[in-house]
Amino acid sequence: MKTITKICCIGAGYVGGPTMSVIANKCPEIQVTVVDINKDRIDQWNTENLDTLPIYEPGLKEIVAESRGKNLFFSTDVDTAIDEAQMIFISVNTPTKTYGKGKGQAADLKYIELCARNIAKVAKDDKIVVEKSTLPVRTAQAIQNILENTGNDVHFEILSNPEFLAEGTAIEDLLHADRVLIGGNDTPSGQEAKDALSAVYEHWLPKERILQTNVWSSELSKLVANAFLAQRVSSINTISALCEKTDANVQEISRAIGFDSRIGPKFLNASVGFGGSCFQKDILNLVYIARSYGLNEVADYWEQVIIANDYQKRRFAGKIISTLYNTVSGKKIVLYGWAFKKDTNDTRESPAIAIADALLEEHAELLVYDPKVKEDRIYADLDYLGTRSPEENRRLLKVTSDPIVATKEAHAIALLTEWDEFTAYDWQKIYDQMLKPAFVFDGRRILDTALMNEIGFNYYKIGE
Ligand code: UDX
Ligand code: ADP
């Protein structure tokens, strides 16, 4: 079997950075070089002050501190790193296309293609190329075609090795992965490549959790895993709407069904809707692939998970408007949370964006507080929608760093992210300074109903 001594990873982002840090940490005899065309990002990875690494993940800085400069390097010299490595990971971004065919659904592969062309240009000996980005099915094939048709007559073996990290727990997920998937060709050189990558993970994971499959299965498994998880959230969210019309309580239902060992308790928390860079994108990819094979029923089935998610966001905003006597025009509403979940500063596809947009359409005056998301990001998220001018967004929505002062003379508070600090606030003090009746709309079900009612709030909790 081929022994790997040098690994190169193209893309120093959310996937490449943490994954390579853990590989380097667990495989001291392998030299790992992470490269990126973005010099600022590489400088940030090389910074003395480990509190300013470009990505925040619990446990990451400790691992970087141990390995950086020993066998973990961050560089902008992409070509040298490709040239020296026997194994090259591609971890570049693959956003949903914003133009042309498949716009709004298919993944944009231009960064992947540029990487493949670069590898083909530089490589002078055989390489194993591992696709690690979140990708639609058939990308390995596309990479293979580019490498074979433009390379210098060297052999490339392409593997698919999808990532299953959740933000906020990425290091934990890497160190104790439920499973690692390695997809590759069923040829002798394909098998050799799969075994070589498996040997890297076997440094810290039991062999039975490393699953070898064909390329299609590996690529599709990634989309299907996320589609199933998102489907659970949409399923319980549709039930939350039914609970609100009846006397049922969605949490009691989650608990009751979660005790069934065939269902299990995870991903059954009703919320304002799911967000994040993966769920929506991966389902849209699944839908796109199914439709491109003429499987319209399959496509419709999975598309419904997204439709239900959009419905949940709209429903929450609608609830705020109808409860505030059918008008929020000129009313001050404080939004607690902008990130798509707690413990991350990532806002990609965050439900807060759609909810804020719907309230702004009704001319509400919004004040946003999030402990980790910066003001620029919030405005960029809204401007990107293009619903109204950037000036209008800045006039109607303000960002604040003081969550308590923000509630002075507010009509309502909407809780959109489940940050722990929200439960620790002095809610009596907040109540005292709000306009009466004082409304709280809890989209994450984190506050204590009895306490909120006792203080005097008109308290709405999703799913009750
Ligand atoms: C997800 C997958 O979990 C991970 O395996 C994959 O590699 C990338 O996508 P991530 O997007 O980081 O990870 O977050 P996740 O914890 O899965 O949450 C996604 C969204 O669902 C969040 O907006 C979260 O608030 C929401 N959610 C999750 C719920 O609303 N209810 C739940 O019970 C669980
Ligand atoms: P992900 O969440 O998938 O890791 P990110 O956007 O956080 O996505 O990171 C992807 C990284 O890939 C970015 O830092 C970007 O600069 C880098 N990148 C994109 N294309 C190339 C390329 N051709 N060569 C090197 N780095 C690239």
What does this protein structure show overall?
Keywords: NAD, Oxidoreductase. This is UDP-glucose 6-dehydrogenase. Its EC number is 1.1.1.22. The structure is a single chain. By secondary structure, the chain is an alpha/beta fold. The chain has two domains: 6-213, Rossmann fold (3-Layer(aba) Sandwich); 308-461, 3-Layer(aba) Sandwich (Rossmann fold), CATH 3.40.50. Helices cover 45% and strands 13% of the residues. It has helices spanning 16-26, 39-45, 60-67, 78-84, 110-122, 139-150, 170-175, 188-201, 215-245, 250-258, 279-292, 296-323, 351-361, 375-385, 390-396, 421-424, 427-433, 449-455, and strands at 6-10, 31-35, 72-75, 87-90, 127-131, 156-160, 180-183, 210-213, 332-336, 365-369, 397-399, 412-415, 439-442, 458-461. Strands 3-2-1-4-5-6 form a six-stranded parallel beta sheet, with helices on both faces. The longest helix has 31 residues, at 215-245. The mean pLDDT is 94. It binds uridine-5'-diphosphate-xylopyranose (UDX) and adenosine-5'-diphosphate (ADP). The site of adenosine-5'-diphosphate has 21 residues, from helix 5. Adenosine-5'-diphosphate is lined by residues 10-16, 35-38, 41, 78, 91-93, 111, 114-115, 133, 277.
